[in-house]
Specification:
Blueprint lengths: L8 E6 L1 H11 L1 H15 L5 H9 L2 H7 L1 H14 L3 H6 L3 H11 L12 E7 L2 E11 L6 E8 L5 E6 L7 E3 L2 E7 L22 H9 L4 H10 L6 E7 L4 E6 L4 E4 L5 E4 L16 H4 L1 H11 L7 H9 L12 E2 L5 E10 L4 E6 L8 E4 L1
Parallel strand pairs: 1-4
Antiparallel strand pairs: 2-3, 2-11, 3-13, 4-5, 5-6, 6-7, 7-8, 8-9, 9-10, 12-13, 13-14, 14-15
């Protein structure tokens, strides 16, 4: 029987500074614990000092593109009793990790079973789903932010305690995301030392996307916004407009579904990025293929239950798959799974491995 576990929900409302302050106060002990070891969890000792500086190079870009989120970070720092720079770096995990990979010329290793995304059209609206896969050591720090800002739409966004957030659901749009091997541009292969420099970190971009009114608005925002890491963003809005957007620091490619749904994991699929063909997916992007394979057997339009099946699925005769369970020096699991339903204005989320846990409802 699957377990029922609910996430810690952080209630945030008011001005951006007040939202951050409430967040910092509610999660003070958790944030202070994660911040103590945060940098060293991501960076090798020889890269610690420079990696911290690299993270802070993002600050001018965030101030320009999303000053309201800087106000939130200021509030988080105040509420949790941290220095501003400590709080800001909590939203820069992927950027520090990707930079270190470039310096070591090992950027392929910056992706560790790193998330699966799904979007589907249903009843003129969208379902957007996410499996967040990463090191099991992050599990105790996962929280769900319930934001009601004075100057923007209400939202639900998952977060490592202290960060401004990751994917989730808002009044108009839902997003998922998955890491891609870092490439400074389409002309550069993954695995080299080319670093494109500062831009907007992933956590801030996730929140900026949740503030958009539609998928088209989100695409326009991504088009004009420099980024600091390479990710695929899977988008769906209340009109049923769904897509995947593969991003590099200054380049992006939009993928549209052939069917009523689309799946993505941790490889480039776009032709302009030299991406994989459908025939290559079983071997080279098996989680994206496995999710697609499970959904291809279900009747259209897909339901939340159909998507749960894909999120819980393992590879044939293996204990890992879309639902991740890996060992080694840094064991990884699916830390959380959710399906955002724009029509219902609600999210169904499973704590930890979805094969072992129920999807619980969280209302916007």
């Amino acid at each position: 029987m699957r377990k029922s576990v609910r996430f810690t929900v952080v209630e945030m409302s008011g001005s951006r500074h007040e939202m951050g302050r409430k967040y910092g106060r509610q999660c003070r002990d958790l944030i202070r614990r994660v911040s103590k070891d945060f940098d060293s969890m991501l960076l090798e000792p020889g890269y610690l000092e420079e990696g911290r500086k690299v993270a802070m190079q993002a600050l001018p870009h965030v101030r320009r593109e999303a000053p309201e989120l800087v106000e939130e970070v200021e509030g988080i720092a105040e509420g949790a009793g941290l220095e501003f720079e400590e709080a800001f770096r909590l939203s820069c995990s992927q950027e520090m990790n990707s930079w270190q990979g470039c310096m070591r010329q090992q950027t392929r290793e910056t992706v560790v079973d790193g998330c699966t995304s799904i979007a589907a059209r249903r009843n003129g609206s969208s379902l957007v789903a996410w499996n967040m896969d990463w090191w099991i050591r992050w599990q105790p720090y996962m929280v769900l932010l319930h934001g009601r800002p004075d100057d923007g739409p209400d939202f639900l966004a998952f977060a490592i305690a202290g960060s401004v957030g990751r994917p989730g659901l808002s009044e108009n749009i839902s997003i998922a995301a998955n890491f891609l091997p870092y490439r400074a541009s389409p002309q550069h292969e993954a695995g080299g030392a080319e670093w494109a420099g500062a831009g907007i970190p992933y956590s801030f971009l996730a929140r900026m996307l949740l503030a958009q009114k539609s998928t088209q608005d989100a695409l326009q925002m991504l088009e004009r916004t420099p980024r600091m890491a390479c990710l695929n963003y899977t988008l769906g809005d209340a009109t049923g407009d769904i897509c995947c957007v593969e991003t590099m620091p200054r380049d992006m490619a939009v993928l549209r579904p052939d069917d009523g749904y689309i799946t993505h994991a941790n490889s480039y699929h776009a032709e302009e990025f030299g991406g994989l063909s459908r025939d290559e997916l079983p071997e080279k992007d098996p989680r994206a293929y496995r999710a697609w394979e499970v959904l291809s057997r279900r009747e259209q339009p897909l339901s939340r239950a159909d998507i749960y099946q894909a999120q819980r699925s393992h590879f044939p005769r293996k204990s890992t798959g879309v639902c991740v369970h890996t060992g080694g020096e840094k064991p990884s699991i699916t830390l959380l799974s959710f399906v955002g339903d724009l029509q219902e204005r609600a999210m169904w989320a499973a704590w930890g491995s979805p094969c072992e846990h129920r999807f619980e409802r969280y209302d916007l």
